[in-house]
UniProtKB/TrEMBL annotation:
Keyword terms of this UniProt record: Cell membrane, Ion channel, Ion transport, Membrane, Potassium, Potassium channel, Potassium transport, Transmembrane, Transmembrane helix, Transport, Voltage-gated channel
Annotated ranges, domain Potassium channel tetramerisation-type BTB: 61-158
Record domain Ion transport: where: 215-458
InterPro entries: Ion_trans_dom (IPR005821), K_chnl_volt-dep_Kv (IPR003968), K_chnl_volt-dep_Kv6 (IPR003969), SKP1/BTB/POZ_sf (IPR011333), T1-type_BTB (IPR003131), VG_K_chnl (IPR028325), Volt_channel_dom_sf (IPR027359)
Residue ranges of the region described as Disordered: 1-29, 486-505
Major location (coarse): membrane
Membrane topology note: Multi-pass membrane protein
Cellular component per GO, a single term: voltage-gated potassium channel complex
Stated name of the protein: Potassium voltage-gated channel modifier subfamily G member 4
TM ranges: 368-389, 396-418, 430-454
Subcellular location: Cell membrane
Molecular functions (GO terms): delayed rectifier potassium channel activity; potassium channel regulator activity; transmembrane transporter binding
Amino acid sequence: MPLLTGHRGLHPGHHQEDPRSPLLPRPTETPALKGLYYRRVRKVGAWDRSPALDLKREMLVNVGGRRYVLPWSTLDEFPRSRLSRLKLCRSHAEIRQLCDDYDEDNQEFFFDRSPSAFAVIVSFLAAGKLVLLRETCALSFREELSYWGIEEAGLEPCCLRRLLRRLEERAEQRREEALQRAEAGRPAVLASRWGRCMNRLREMVENPQSGLPGKVFACLSVLFVATTAVSLCVSTMPDLRAEEDKGECSPKCYSIFVVETVCVAWFSLEFCLRFVQARDKCQFFQGPLNIIDMLAISPYYVSLAVSEEPPEHGERPGGGGGGSYLEKVGLVLRVLRALRILYVMRLARHSLGLQTLGLTVRRCTREFGLLLLFLGVAVTLFAPLVYVAENEAGRVLEFTSIPASYWWAIISMTTVGYGDMVPRSVPGQVVALSSILSGILIMAFPATSIFHTFSHSYLELKKEQERLQARLRRLQNCSAASERPLLDDVDDQVPEGPASPGAYA
């Protein structure tokens, strides 16, 4: 290949004389090592209209305006590729079935494909290394590989993992889109008045960005969740617990019961609205958030059902009067009322961060399983060691048995360190140091993968939310445009005056 002219019009092999050159050592020139790519494939500029070709050994390919000269010997290693099959063509009709156009004069094959993707494929054909560029869409690159007849197995391991992960995400997205289309494609129901009411109710309940009703509904839901959490914390104050033990109830206790009743009434109404607007009732009860709603609402009604008489002023609500009732169901009611904290999980309906956390947990089940496996093996290893070390030293104060040492191993490996069980002997401290270092390494192994999954899931959900908002705006614009012809008809009836702007829409 001809070399371009150097700086200041000098040839690269010509050196300008410098008076300081005798004082400095002359750099040794090393020969340019041109690899397999330069020896077998070369790129031809668009200005070179008729490059010198040996048609028996080389072919000229034009992909998206970029021209390449490829030796046929390079393509012989990939007989199933599209370019290799061009060599077997016997007529122009067969050639045009494999390429978009063919110039008989210059023997040039034209392909209307992505030039950047083909540059990567050319590098693979020449050097045998196929990579997926960061700025290239994985799905589009997969289509390019399929078009050119290159197997995906030729990708580098890191690029292949990225492609497979993107394919799994795309498959999951298609399943969700299919479910959405199946739910939306019911014209018979949509045509009725009941169907329109259900659509409005569904938009209000499921999509806070649908309008003012949806935003008000979401704000009320978050407000009642916060109120429930505060009332649960206040109900555990020492003075209220003392009244509960005595079976009495002050006005403050009764006010907390009223607040709880109002919150449960709202949650029950919201649950009923979600159940009514759901198209598939069976699938509704299988939703994780709906199951949490049922577990959080049911304790209140269970506590009322087991009460012997309705709560009155001066009597513990839901607890009855007298010690006999507390002996029977007091503990059960306290446990059930503690389940009210599950209302906090309802915030996942309106929080993108909590939705991302749930999606990350679902996608990283394998990583969490490996983490539990590593911890289980390490705990099983270090718990007997610390027990033997402390037992041999004669200082068995806290480590009474190997099962009791499991607790210490878990706390130490997770770097929590409560301090309730501390090894006193030197061998026990060596085991403790080993367990702590092992715990740090074990916790760090899957943390990187989980973090990347969380970051990617957050960006994915954020884009999905933006796409839904854009779709909602398009629907609103379409509904406004459907009413515009009525206004145009009214404008057409005006005999004089300038035309309205809507007439040209």
